[in-house]
Specification:
The protein is an alpha/beta fold. Helix content is 41%, strand content 16%. It is built from eleven helices and ten strands. Strand 1 and strand 2 (20-22) form a beta hairpin. Helix 3 (106-121) packs across helix 4 and helix 8 (226-235) crosses helix 9 (239-249). It starts with 11 loop residues before the first strand and ends with a helix.
Length: 292
Amino acid sequence: MSAEPRGEDPGRIVSASGVLMPRIIYGTAWKKERTAALVEEALRTGFRGIDTACQPKHYNEPGVGEGLAAALGAGLDRADIYLQTKFTPFGGQDPENIPYDAEAAIGEQVRQSFEVSLRNLRVDRLDGLVLHSPYPEDKDTLEAWRAMESLVAQGGVRQLGVSNCYELSRLKMLWKKARVKPAVIQNRFYAKTGYDREIRAFCAKHKIFYQSFWTLTANPETLAKPELIALAEKYGRGRAQIFFRFLTQQGILCLTGTSSQEHMRDDLTIFDFSLTAEECATLDALLTAAPA
């Protein structure tokens, strides 16, 4: 099934929260000291979505802010850029470098992390705030979510999401009890979880956008399949372009963290062509057959 937008820009789509989002987003994990330069380059190349996290262990959020400021200074409009960061619970942080008071209540940790993100990113509002992972206990997940909801109510955040949520029951619980429903879920897209088929079905039903990360890294076998290679030859495209285009036509928003300007340009040209329904079905069958 194709989930193409009907507007003039096939590379963007509007979320259930009314937020305009790109279908391919630049991911900034593990960029370290290169973060600022790569973010600026991605934005200058044409990316209009940036994903980061207030998690010094894996992200350089101040570097994202530096790169964003440089791009804005060169004439880009902040209103055209979707900026998404994450609140990372204590368990996902480096104990030696936590961006909030680890002794504070969870809700206060969320608020402190949010304020740090605004300073790091040099903005006064976030387009998306994502809970980096559910807590082991639902009550703690909900405490964090309530604090995130309060930031939406105060106008500091436009929409909310959750990441690394691989149990459908956890997502259903959050959906049922949330006052501000999750607009996005961001998960690793790989065979071990069956490519989140049940979760993606739930997302489609409830108008939650599914964002994929490790989309290429976790799927070398699929990218090497003769069927995908044949499509790459047919369309004169790279294998990554075919895979990304297939996923975006299924309604998935893809993260890419490439450090290559050539690959950045390639990633952004995937909306210049479309796969047929039959070709999408062929690629979907490859995922169904992928070993778990």
